[in-house]
Amino acid sequence: MPAHNSLPGDAARPRRHRSESRAAAFLSPLTWLLPLLVLLLLGGTGSALYIGGLGSPSGHLQHVPIAVVNRDQGSDAGGTEQNFGQNITDTLTENFGKTDEIDLRPLNWDDAQHQLRSGQVYAAVVFNEDFSADAAGLVTSSLTASEASRPQVTLYTNPLASPLGSQLAGEAVEPALREASSSLGGQLESSAQAAQTEAQRSLDRQLAQVPLPAAVESSLAPQIDGTAETVLRDPIQVTETPFESPAQGEALGMGAFFYSVLLMVVGISGSVTLHFLIDSRLGVSPVELGTRFVLGPRLQPARWVTFLLKWGLMLAIAVPTAGLIMWIANLVGMPIPHGGWFFFSTWLSLATISAVTLGLVTLFGSAGLILSMIYVVFMGLPAATGVVPLEMLPGFFSFIARGEPLYQMTIANKAILYFDAEAGAGLQAGLIGMGIIILVFVVIALAAGLLYDRLFGVRSALPERRKAAART
């Protein structure tokens, strides 16, 4: 490629005039004001969206999905059928139904496991099969020397769906379980006191027939000791455990998000690099290589043709790039099931990011690079659900998430890596979402390119540049 040289008239200009012109250019507000405004725009927008969006997840709970499962078989206590697990389940459902923070889903155990495995719920509250029997056993054991177990509730978290989301879901439901334990404790204390009264009456009837010394009678009196009383007051034992722990190499359940961020960075960087190289090759604008400004022959292609050329090259280059990224990711320890689906999702992610970036450049010129940073990065990172789930973000991000490439990339990659490539776990929605984003930006870029060429001519700046060179 020929080097871009100085214009002929430059040599005839006095050195002093050139120095004054440079000084005026350096001091001109046009030189420093625009970069200042751009940096302030990026800094302010990034802080507002990223820090503002992710800073307080516990304060933005909105319909957080949690399953509740009653496996309690009930108990026949004193001739009365009791199912404490069902009673507490009904109470939890009613209380959480009064707010929009928690979407409590009463499910059977099979459905709950399916929703945990597909990432549809962040936690599950499960009342064990012997819950009522163990609760009734506490009343009996409080007056005897027999052993008893506390009624058990298992709180399953789902770190593969979202490490932070499962943690906050557990924290959201724990106060309700403590309140349920206190309420059940009140019932058991009343039952224990009634049983103690009845036992004392029975003892009194027996002692009326066989009188004993007062000291002996006192020792035979039924008593609820301090330990039993403490257990009765707070009977439920909650055990928290992950339903399925992330495997080695899955970054504690955030590996799919980190991988999607990598694809975003590669897609943007590759698209920007390709944009400048192709523009230089087509003679649109020079590119600086070391000490040289390289500019190819001025072909003056139509804008829509240039877009298709750049994006088409990106689609082709993304094939080996996707394979290389996958191979290195697996080489360093990331498990990759369903390799075919994962390769397609990786390639489609790169294609989506390039369509967005090059589309914005076609529509807005160089300003499109800044807009792509705001749209894809600053708006996309908080809305991607990689760190904080949508149900724990301000409503703005729930509104924009479906239109964000990184969100669609993350849910598709997460479904493949963690949820057996199940369509309902996000794979279908993610792939379709990326396809729609590609279609929208390709159509916009082609329409804008055709319109600009019709209204302003094909690269109309080039004739103006040649006229300016001739005048000098």
Automatic annotation (TrEMBL):
Q: Where is the composition biased (Low complexity)?
A: 187-200
* Principal location listed in the UniProt entry: membrane
The answer to whether UniProt assigns keyword Transmembrane helix to this entry is yes
Topological category with respect to the lipid bilayer: Multi-pass membrane protein
Give the signal peptide as a residue range, or say none if absent: none
Q: Which UniProt keywords apply?
A: Cell membrane, Membrane, Transmembrane, Transmembrane helix
Pfam families this protein is in? ABC2_membrane_3
**Ranges that cross the membrane:** 23-51, 256-278, 307-329, 341-361, 368-388, 427-452
Region called Disordered, residue ranges: 180-200
Q: Where in the cell is it found?
A: Cell membrane
Provide the protein name: DUF3533 domain-containing protein
Query: Which ranges carry the ABC-2 type transporter transmembrane domain?
Result: 31-446
Alphabetized InterPro entries for the sequence:
ABC2_TM, T7SS_ABC-Transporter
Record's family?
A: Belongs to the ABC-2 integral membrane protein family.
